[in-house]
Amino acid sequence: MENVKEVLTKKSKRAKMEQRGKIISFMCIALIVLVVISIFYFVASRGLATFFVDKVNVFDFLFGTVWNPSAVGPDGQPLVGALPMILGSFVVTFLSAIVATPFAIGAAVFMVEISPKNGEKVLQPVIELLVGIPSVVYGFIGLSVVVPAVRSVFGGTGFGILAGTFVLFIMILPTVTTMTVDALRSVPRHYREASLALGATRWQTIYKIVLRAAVPGILTAVVFGMARAFGEALAIQMVIGNAALLPSSLVTPASTLTSILTMGIGNTIMGTVQNNVLWSLALILLLMSLLFNVVIRLIGKKGALK
Fold first, then answer.
1. Looking at the predicted structure, is the pLDDT value of residue 303 above 80?
2. pLDDT score of 8
3. Count of CB atoms within 10 A of residue 226's CB?
4. Does CATH place domain 82-303 in 3.40.50.720?
5. Cα gap 252→241, rounded to integer Å
6. Is the separation of the CB atoms in 80 and 50 below 8 Å?
7. Using the 8-state DSSP alphabet, how is residue 208 labeled?
8. Residue 266 gets which letter from DSSP?
C-alpha cells in the first residue's frame, strides 16, 4: 500500500522537466527586469546629480537656450540650457514621421491589397535590405548626397533639420512599413468581402474599411518609428550640424539630444558638471523612450477593445 501511495504521489519526469522550465523562465525574466531597473537607476542617479549635487535649476536646464557647460552665467550657474537639443530632437522626429507615414501606408497597401505577389517579391526584399543597413552608412550617404542636395536647392550649409529629416525618413521607413503591413493583414477578410458585397469599389473598401480598421496598428507603427528616430545618434549627428542653438530655420545647423551626447560623453570627466549634464540629457532620452512605449501600449489596448 505504501509503495502504491509513493508511486502515485511521486512527480513524473515530465512534471519535473516542466518545473525546471518554469524556474529557468522565471530566472530569465527576473534577470531582464533586474537589468532594466539597474539601467534606470544608473542613468537616473547620474542625471539627477545635475540638480541635487551641482544645484542646477531644473527650469533653467529644460528651458534655457544657451549650452556651454564649461562657462558660468552671471548668477553663478553653468550655462546648460537644453532647450535647443530637446526642440531639435522633437522637430526632426515629427517631421521624419510626417514624411515617412504616407510612403509607408502606400507601400503597405500595395503589398497587401494591390499586388501581394509583386509586393512580396520586390518590395519585401528591399525593405529587409534597408533594415539591415548600418546607421553609419546612412550617415555617409546623407553627408555625401543629402547635405549637398539641400545646399544646392535650399541654400545655406546644407546641414540642419531638413537634412536630418530626410536621413531619418529613410531610416524609419522600413520599420513603419513593416508594421503597417502587419496591421493591414490583421484586418479580417470578411470585412473586405462584406464591403464589396454591398457595392463598394476596391478603393472605397481599402480607404473606408481596411485602413480605418487598421488605424490602431498604423498609429502604433508611426509611434514606433518616432521612437526609433528620437533615439538615433550617429546618422543624425553627421548631417544636422551639431550647433547647440535654437533652430531658426530648417536649413540652419542644429543639434539633438543624441548628437550632443555622442560628441561630448567621451570628452568629459565622470562626476564633473560637464559630465552630469550629459547624463541628464540621457535621462531625458530614457524618459521619452518610456513615454513612447506607454503610448504604444495605450494604442494597442484601444485597438484590442475594438
1. no
2. 54
3. 26
4. no
5. 8
6. yes
7. I
8. G
CA atoms of 249 and 162, how far apart (whole Å): 9
Its pTM stands at: 0.86
Distance between CA atoms of 146 and 139, rounded to whole angstroms? 10
Q: How far apart are CA 91 and CA 58, in angstroms?
A: 22
Find, among 209, 222, 264, 243, the residue nearest to 85 by Cα.
243
Placement of cell 494597442 in the chain: 300
The set of cell numbers assigned to 16 is: 519535473
Please state, in angstroms and rounded to a whole number, the distance separating the CA atoms of residues 3 and 136.
69
Estimate to the nearest angstrom the gap between the alpha carbon of 192 and the chain centroid: 32
Report how far residue 237's alpha carbon sits from residue 261's, in angstroms, rounded to the nearest whole number: 10
Residue 269: C-alpha distances to residues 273, 278, 286 (Å): 9, 11, 22
Q: Which amino acid is at 177?
A: T
Domain coordinates in residue numbering, the chain: 13-79, 82-303
Which burial class, exposed, middle or buried, applies to 109 when counting CB atoms under 10 A from its CB (0-12, 13-18, 19+)?
A: buried
What amino acid is encoded at 104 in this protein?
A: A
Give the pLDDT confidence of 3-49 residue by residue, as tens digits: 655 555 666 677 778 888 888 989 999 999 999 999 999 999 988 98
